[in-house]
Amino acid sequence: MSMQPRIEEVSDSDSDPSEMDPSDFAPSSSLINPSDIPSTAQSASSMAAARQSQEAALASQRAAREKTKRYQCLYPIYFDSSRSRAEGRRVNKSDGVANPLARTIIDALQSLGMPGAQIAFEPAKMHPKDWANPGRVRIQLRDEAGRDTTGGRVRNKHELLHKVAAYLKEHPTTEDSPLRLRIPGVPVPEKEVPAVQVPRGWKMGSILPLHSPALSGGGVSEDFFKDMMKEMQGQGGAGQAKKKDKKGKK
């Protein structure tokens, strides 16, 4: 039996359909023989079956999210040395790192050797102050009865943050790090990961996951950032660097 903690991927959307090879589609098969046209009763039955399957999938996702609500959450921003405490950092600045990624946080948790601790990864979840770096990791430190699931390796979240930060220090993010996380439907660069163009006055990592909204379309415009700022004004911060008030200063 494997002693590695199990990782569950929690998603808010259905998985992408499987890819089809163009050679699988023959023009001769694009015409439907009248005898092959399903009856109304068959169509209704198929629709009902599809609806039941979708409802079952949604119920499974809801159950997974409900199960992980008691888990401890870890966002990359918690370990970002470029952020202040007010901007989302949760560890000492000296323990922070540049460009932390959720994928490396998973590696850190696995390295701790906690066979009873369940890990859940939510690739699309974002911290409200770090929208450009998606990915939330949840870890179960105690079960529903309050029993320790870490084998005594982690006593509380403070110690968890410290141990994850130490791992991130020893495994710094490189330009190739985003390639270690593949998301269905997100194209992988053929040559190299595109460089992030950070607009003046904004705080975001210079290395981001491939599914980051800041990388979609080959970059983002100033208008995109203005729209994002408006949308996030009521969400407790938008990841913009604070400007110093120079009034009265010479």
Automatic annotation (TrEMBL):
Compositional bias ranges of the Acidic residues kind: 10-22
Region of interest called Disordered, as start-end residue ranges on this chain: 1-63, 230-250
Segment forming the signal sequence: none
GO cellular component: signal recognition particle, endoplasmic reticulum targeting
Keyword flag Cytoplasm: yes
Start-end of Basic residues biased regions: 241-250
SUPFAM superfamilies: SRP19
Domain of life (superkingdom): Eukaryota
Protein localization: Cytoplasm
Comp. bias intervals (Polar residues): 26-38
Compositional bias of kind Low complexity: 39-62
UniProt KW keywords: Cytoplasm, Ribonucleoprotein, Signal recognition particle
Descriptive protein name: Signal recognition particle, SRP19 subunit
Organism field: Myriangium duriaei CBS 260.36
